[in-house]
Every structure is written in C-alpha cells, then in structure tokens.
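[User] I have long wanted to understand how a fold can be written as tokens. Those tokens are not coordinates but codes from a learned vocabulary of shapes. Could you go through the record with me and say what the backbone is doing? Thank you; the sequence and its tokens follow:
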Amino acid sequence: MKPYWDLDKLTIKRIFGIIEKCEELELENACFIYNPKLKNEVKFYMVKYDHHWNLTVIQNWEKKSDIHKFKDGSLTFEYSQLN
C-alpha cells in the first residue's frame, strides 16, 4: 500500500524542522495546515512517543489519512485509512 498524500522533499524538510524545534522546546506535539483557505486543505499532526514521532496527514475533502513514523532521522510510511 502507498500513501494517499505524497510527501515532497520540501514538506519532509519542514516536518523535520518542526520536530527539531519541538524537541528543543520540549513540546510533544505540533500541527499545521496546507491550503487553509481552500476546500482541499491538508492537515499535518505530529505526536511524540517514547522513541519516535508519528505524523498523521489528513485530507478532509477525501476523508483519507496516512500515518508515518519518524525515527532516527528517517521517515517510514506505516499505513493509510479512510476516515
């Protein structure tokens, strides 16, 4: 299975930057929205667990989500689901 939303290199770079800043500030979660004024907005939720970060990418208009894991500087796609 492949993700519904493909993460481009710039988005991955931004996500890693946000995770680094969260670690620095001792925050355990963060979120942001692409295209917040458009119907096809995409929401990104990051949550810290003991040894990794989970990223959930939600496409509201499609009612689809992708789950990724960030661990040791690498990104791994876990699974997708219909909401």
About this structure: The first strand starts at residue 29 and ends at 34. The chain has a mean pLDDT of 92. Residues 9-82 form one domain. Helices lie at 9-25.
